[in-house]
């Protein structure tokens, strides 16, 4: 049976902040979530909620925050930190998506003015020289979230109007398949100004809770390279990233990757935990706009992005497909 709920979120939700939690107080059962399953794949998804949601910051899109994916007795995601603050920019679980660009209307807005972040709402610009992605900005209008789900799927629709000419209807639908899941997106421009922005997925893989290190390989369908400092942690060779050693608790590494072309066939990544045999291949049906790789001790993230250009009255759709596997 399909369950349906409409959430009308207001700016007053920020005042309901629960406060940060220590590692002894991490209790994610307090946050609204839904579990879906098709018998092979089981998934937990946290729900957008301005008063009680797991994530109420402004860096990431609030929809489709996946807390757990289980397949053939293996786990592919999880919470990767020892503390949690719903208003902190990175305190959530993957795969999570967002927009690297500052926001629609940010550049021309004065301090105290309004700009829009898709999947979040209408935000207030700070008195600052440039956008700070680590900052959580005041949310003046959360828009309207509508959530629907069945036993093996869930959809999020975010509708937003603004006084600065930007408006949209953004839908994300997660559907489980026999060996993974599909993220289907559709962005409709209902405003008077064109929407030009990137969209990225941070992913936050945590396959079987394995520490980032020599157990993992990350593979691409094209020869990859990077001019960035790997800090002696990574080897980037041919089509693959591998770790030279396990990462310490206080270490992280970030590199931009090049080598991909203009075809959507290049928009694919394979992540394998060689120790447990569990892995994942994900691919997107739009060309890559940017590819980077980031890892800390508890999670690793090949971060892929696409470019969106949607004129008023038009819409754009794209799909991300995740295929899970277990090597014997």
Description:
The protein has 328 residues and is mostly beta strands. Helices cover 0% and strands 43% of the residues. It is built from no helices and 23 strands. Strand 10 (144-150) and strand 11 (153-160) form a beta hairpin. Residues 1-24 have low confidence and may be disordered.
Task: Please give the alpha-carbon distance between the first and last residues.
Answer: 37 Å
Assembly type: single chain
Order of helices and strands: EEEEEEEEEEEEEEEEEEEEEEE
The biggest beta sheet is recorded as: 11 strands, antiparallel
Residue stretches low in confidence (pLDDT < 50, at least 5 long) are 1-24
Label the overall shape. Answer: globular
* Total of DSSP H or I helical runs spanning 4+ residues: 0
Average pLDDT score: 92
Percent of residues in helical segments? under 10%
| Helix/strand/pairing category | mainly beta
Strand content: 35-45%
For the secondary structure, the number of strands is: 23
Q: Give me the side-by-side strand order of the main sheet.
A: 1-10-11-12-13-23-20-19-15-17-16
Query: Rg to the nearest angstrom?
Result: 19 Å
Provide the fold topology:
Elements: E1 3-8, E2 33-37, E3 41-46, E4 65-71, E5 74-75, E6 97-98, E7 114-117, E8 121-124, E9 139-141, E10 144-150, E11 153-160, E12 168-177, E13 180-189, E14 195-201, E15 216-219, E16 234-237, E17 240-243, E18 252-257, E19 268-273, E20 278-284, E21 290-296, E22 300-310, E23 315-326
Keywords:
328 residues, mainly beta
Would you summarize the structure shown here?
By secondary structure, this protein is an all-beta fold.
């Amino acid at each position: 049976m399909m369950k349906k709920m409409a959430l009308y979120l207001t700016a007053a939700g920020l005042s309901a902040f629960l406060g940060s939690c220590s590692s002894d107080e991490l209790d994610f059962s307090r946050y609204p979530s839904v579990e879906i399953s098709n018998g092979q794949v089981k998934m937990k998804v946290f729900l957008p909620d301005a008063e009680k949601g797991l994530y109420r910051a402004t860096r990431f899109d609030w929809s489709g925050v996946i807390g757990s994916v289980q397949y053939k007795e293996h786990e592919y995601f999880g919470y990767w930190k020892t503390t949690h603050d719903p208003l902190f920019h990175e305190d959530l679980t993957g795969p999570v998506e967002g927009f690297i660009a500052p926001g629609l209307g940010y550049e021309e807005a004065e301090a105290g003015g309004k700009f829009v972040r898709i999947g979040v709402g209408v935000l207030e610009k700070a008195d600052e020289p440039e956008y700070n992605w680590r900052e959580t900005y005041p949310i003046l209008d959360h828009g309207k979230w509508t959530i629907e789900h069945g036993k093996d799927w869930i959809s999020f629709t975010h509708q937003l109007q603004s006084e600065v000419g930007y408006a949209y209807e953004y839908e994300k639908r997660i559907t489980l398949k026999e060996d993974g899941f599909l993220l289907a997106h559709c962005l409709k421009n209902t405003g008077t100004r064109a929407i030009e922005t990137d969209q990225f997925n941070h992913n936050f893989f945590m396959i079987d809770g394995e520490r980032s290190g020599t157990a993992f390989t990350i593979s691409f369908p094209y020869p990859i390279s990077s001019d960035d400092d790997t800090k002696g942690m990574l080897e980037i060779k041919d089509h693959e990233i591998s770790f030279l050693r396990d990462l310490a608790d206080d270490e992280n590494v970030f590199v931009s990757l090049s080598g991909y072309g203009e075809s959507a066939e290049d928009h694919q990544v394979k992540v394998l935990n060689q120790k447990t045999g569990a892995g994942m291949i994900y691919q997107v049906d739009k060309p890559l706009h940017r590819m980077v790789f980031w890892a800390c001790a508890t999670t690793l993230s090949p971060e892929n992005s696409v470019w969106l250009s949607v004129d008023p009255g038009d819409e754009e759709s794209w799909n991300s497909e995740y295929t899970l596997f277990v090597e014997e």
